[in-house]
Amino acid sequence: MKKRSNFFLYALIAVPIGLMIVPTIVVLAVALLPTGVAFLLERRKGFYGGLTVGAMNLAGCAPFLADLWFDGHTVQNAVGIITNVFAWMSFYGAAMFGWAIYSTTPSVVSTFMAMTAGRRIAAMRDQQKELVQKWGPDVESVYEPERKPGDLPAGPPDSLTNGLTKAV
Amino acid sequence: MAEAAADLKPAPEKAPPAAPAAAPTPPPPSPETVGAPSSPSGSYIIVRDRFTIFCDRPLPSLDMPNALAYEVADRKQEGRPLYALVCRPDMPARVSVMRTLKGLEIPAVLHMVDWGVAEWPLLERKCVIVIYHRPLGGKVMDAHFGSMKRIPDHVFARTVIKPIAEGLIELGLKGVTHRAIRPDNLYYIDEQKTKIVLGDCVTSVPAHDQPVLLETIESGMAQPSGRGAGTYADDMYAFGASVLMIALGRNPVAGVPDWELIRRKIQIGSYATLVGDERVPMALIECLRGMLTDDAEQRWLPNNIDLWLNGKRLTPIQARSEPQSQRPLRFAEMEFHSIRPLSYAMYNNWDKALSIISDGTLEVWIRRGLELNDLADSIASAIKGTGAALGKGEADDIIIARVLMLLDPRAPIRYRDFRLFIEGFGSSLAVAMLRKQKLQAFTDFITRELWRYWIIAQTKFIAENQQYEGVFRELRNYLKDQNSGGGIERCVYELNEWQPCMSPLIADQYVMEVKGVLPALDVVAKTANIKVWPVDRHIAAFLRARYAKGTGSQIDSMNDQRPDRATIGMLSVLAIVQWRLGPEALYGLAQWVGGLMGPVVNSYQNRVKRKEIEKELPKLIRKGNLAEMFNYLDNPEERQKDGEGFSWAKAEYAAAEKLVYDLEHGQVDRQESAILTGRQAGAAGAGFIMFVTYLFIMLGKLF
After folding, report:
1. Could you report the per-residue pLDDT of B120-139, keeping only the tens digit for each?
2. Which residue of B658, B660, B692 is the best one to mutate when testing the A interface, meaning the one whose CB has the most A CBs within 10 A?
3. Looking at the 3D structure of chain B, how many domains does it have?
4. What element of type H or E holds B126?
5. Distance to chain A for B464, nearest Cα, Å
């Protein structure tokens, strides 16, 4: 009962506003097609694809929407925009840029994180070396994580094998 | 003694050109001096800033079996006739008797003027030196196997018996048994040879140098070092035998082997054995019978002599008859009718003895022939008990020893070649150790409880035996302790109150007291192998026996299995002795010990601290204070700091190791995380671009 009353409330607000911004909706309906596609494709991965493409897609719409809003908010102007090749190029070019951002940032971040981890390992090893120099080899210990039943035995750490295992 | 040891300072110098006026011309060197190092010509030592002992003027005629005699000059009383006996280092001296007799002028006993420990140049080590009044008439008899001019019968009692008896009474009052009464240890104190005195009795363990003929049956059976201090009755026997020899002018049983002499004494009695067919002055017969009786309880004592000299006739001594068997027991091709001769024969034929024990012949003979059922039961019980407790091979000797104890309880404990009285065990062990003889028999004596069997076998109650029981129980515990401070070394120091430390490191220093140990080690530090510990088994046992309260826990610590704790324990032993007994500085020893502190320095985990210690140690060594060195090296605060720091460092290392592990083994997670973060960052970046774009465009439209 309450849900139904909420729906009517939203509809009461949205419909007049929708009628007032029809030209904008017309433009966005055409312009945000890549965003919709992105949401559909990446919906299982947290919608970050849709958000990234959508944000850039909206950024690509910005000059044309500004013209629409400031130079006459009419359906005619809206049609003029969606029939403009440059507008399409702007919409979809920005969306492509958004997709490019979405595709490349994980690998960039991964590389950065790997670099950070390497530096930390080196720092830890230096710290350990200093401890051994000051306190002797008796301070040394080997970390062995507690294994859960069914776990495979862990191989030697990369720092000891210099990545040979992986190379082989 | 302590003061004596400290005061006797060596001063090897050139001898004065002229000998003291009273000193006779030095005789030619005796055969006894051949083994000694060549004499540094003209050297002497000065004792107590008073007595000059001339190393190059021996007096062989006054030598003792275990001490060599040298001329002495008294600086305070020139012309006073003195001589010194320099004791052999491998024979323990009777220090407790020396302490009693020093300075005492006992009639008919050679006056001991002084004694002490001093560096003896001829042996290049410290020796016990005893200074005596010099007997000007020489020995009564040159050797117990020699002959002499007879003393006329009418003066014999007054010249020989009376003074010696008086001397023995005086010694008895001082609680001292002489145990060296023999014709060649009796001296004429005056040149006219009118007055006889008893000679030295302190330069060897009691009765060690006594020939068997002068000892009682029981004492004669014992090995020389194991006869023990004995009783006044033993002195009286030796006195009686000596009187007989002096009266006859020779040894009446010369050439008779010791075992045969004992056999005859057992068989026919000492008086009959020694007198034999000799013609003894009538006046002496009663006295000699009294002194040579084999029953110690009936034997004459000095007061009996006094009565006899005053003309009182004493009750004739009735020899106790031993039980005789009608039926003889045949053993070793001899026939025996009584127990004691059989016991002695069994000892002399040790390997054959087991046969008559194990086949029951002995037991049956005692039960049926002698009708001594109690003794037979005891023997049966001993055989059964020993056989059950030990293996067959091991038990044989113990069974024979136990049976011999039961057959002749008065005899010493006999265990193959080992034969001694329980009270002579300590001195015998000391002699064996000094002469580096095998000690297995001594350890067997303690661990196999031969002492206990002997005490049990005694037919008469002797209060002292209860004390021995406690003593030997303790010794058994010491033997079980194989660490430093225990073992047979501990036993020898516990049993011999004045035994000097026999450590090879300081044996030459003749250290009798704990406070002498460190200075002695300090002296030898210059020449000792500095890689060995200065506290060896002997020193540890010596300290533990003499100063258990002060060093017990430190010696326990020295026996720790961990090298660092053991080393600091060794330092603590020395440090506590120096702290309590001095001296303040021991530079040589500090350097020696400092060089051994490697394990202690390395016990600190902190390398920086180690370097700091290595830098500080030489400064402490230069101070020569071991207590300070110990306090620095084993500072509890520093130890705690080091321990805590090490624990912290281990934890830090482990944490770093875990982090590295996580970083190295978290690749997959990191990839997923990177993808997620990248997507989030991309979305955020795109959102930011959109916001900036709209902001600028809107601002451009508005303005």
Report:
1. 999 999 999 999 999 999 89
2. B660
3. 4
4. strand B125-133
5. 59
